[in-house]
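Write out structure tokens for WDR64 protein.
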Amino acid sequence: ALESIDFKNALEQFQNLVEKMIIQKTKESSGLYTKDGDEIDYDKFYSTTRTLFGPAVKDQNIQAFFRKIMSNPDEGPEWPEIFGCFTEERDDMSSPSKENMVLLISEKQQITHSVVKRKDVIKGIVKVPHLHLTITASQRGVLTVFNKQRKSFFSYSLYFHQDTAWITGCDYLPNLKYVVAVTESTVILWDYISKESKSDGFVIKPMKNCLLCVCTVTMADNLAKDTILIGDYKGYVYLLTITSDDFIMKQSKTGKVSQFKVMDSESFDIPKRKLHDDWVGKIKYFPALKRFGSCSTDSTNSFVLDDIKRLEDQLPVKEFSVPKGVNAFTYCGKAKVIVTGG
């Protein structure tokens, strides 16, 4: 407890130091700063940081932190960076037994593959542990599957572009072995292991409301189909079941989107139910509970946890109210608790 209090005090002093540096740099840029005895240069920043945290920080991290503040004071770095948490992993830190004196840093491997280009951002990351896959989806349409084999990563990328639609979420269909992603008005199904083309797949459209998130409902009762849940900007949650037969039977005659075959959304039975009065921020299915969860910034119906059957009937759902809503949630099976973040 004493160490915790000491670290909190040291962190507060460090944050005050950073704030003074940002003010100083801003004044220097505007020509309003006059040098005096309180000027903070690199030597003063280094000695103060070393006094506060001791050997828990490395010289190169102190230098990088200082340089980042001086080059762009408007985008100040976060305090964990001073401990090297967001910097490239070095060979001498490859052992999982290495422990920082302040923060426990587990072993990690950096993927140097350039997933997205400038002005693009990652909108979803999904891990598929049993297949050693990691899937990422970028806002501007780059879907990437990282396959860890022989201690290295192989990637398969797809650039999906349709008008100006942005990808808003992704997941993996374990039975059909497709990557699923949603844009503002479509559902993308990418056959990433297809031998015919790296851009082989299907697009379900049009979806009437703007889609914001997607997740897979994990059930092993049928190996020829997968079920997904989708949340939209009007508070609706959709239940969409896709079978292998749909790829053959429900292709539209309207042509293709890029390399993808189009399937008419009207040909699917897609139950939906309005669960929130604001955007659905996140949706997730918990196999251990046999329930799905969805959250929203809606203060009245902030978090819903219930059976997916509730999307096909009008029975009351288990819901919780949180002031200003819920932005994120997760479930811990060992502790049997659900944690929400607003």
